[in-house]
Amino acid sequence: MTRGRTLIIVLVTLTLGFGAGFALRPVIAPVGQTAAAAGPLPSAQAPPAPRGTQYFAAHLDEARQVVAQCAQGTARGDECANAKQAVTEAEGRERFKKFMGN
């Protein structure tokens, strides 16, 4: 009998607590504040996407500059890998042309 009484007291207390929470919600946190809190958070502007290998293949001088900056440590990320790949492929094509006598 004590367990049943305890269960009923707990359920009634929880029901009253939830009811009071829903009833007092507009007083505790006005609607204007909750709408602002639920909206998207302002964030820092996303960095531009790294330029691709095709871009660097078309602009080899710029690719060589980026590779030099990466070697110095002033540039990082996917742009370094893309520029290095474009420069390597261009040098490989030049070596192949020299080898073939063109």
Largest beta-sheet details: none
> Which stretches are low in confidence, meaning pLDDT under 50 for 5 or more residues running?
none
End-to-end Cα distance, whole Å, is: 100 Å
Tally of discrete structural domains: 2
| CA-based gyration radius | 32 Å
Principal-axis shape: rod-shaped
How many DSSP-defined strands?
0
- Mean pLDDT over all positions: 84
Task: Please indicate the percent range of residues in DSSP E strands (runs of 2 or more).
Answer: under 5%
Q: What string gives the helices and strands in order?
A: HHHHH
- How many helices? The count is 5
Helicity range: over 70%
- Given helix and strand content, the structural type is mainly alpha
Short overview:
With 102 residues, the protein is mostly helical. It has five helices and no strands.
List keywords for this structure.
mainly alpha; 102 residues; 0% strand
Layout of secondary structure:
Elements: H1 2-28, H2 31-38, H3 53-58, H4 60-72, H5 78-100
Give an overview of the whole structure.
The protein is mainly α and 102 residues long. The protein folds into 2 domains: 2-36; 53-100. 75% of the residues lie in helices and 0% in strands. The chain contains 5 helices and no strands. The chain has helices spanning 2-28, 31-38, 53-58, 60-72, 78-100.
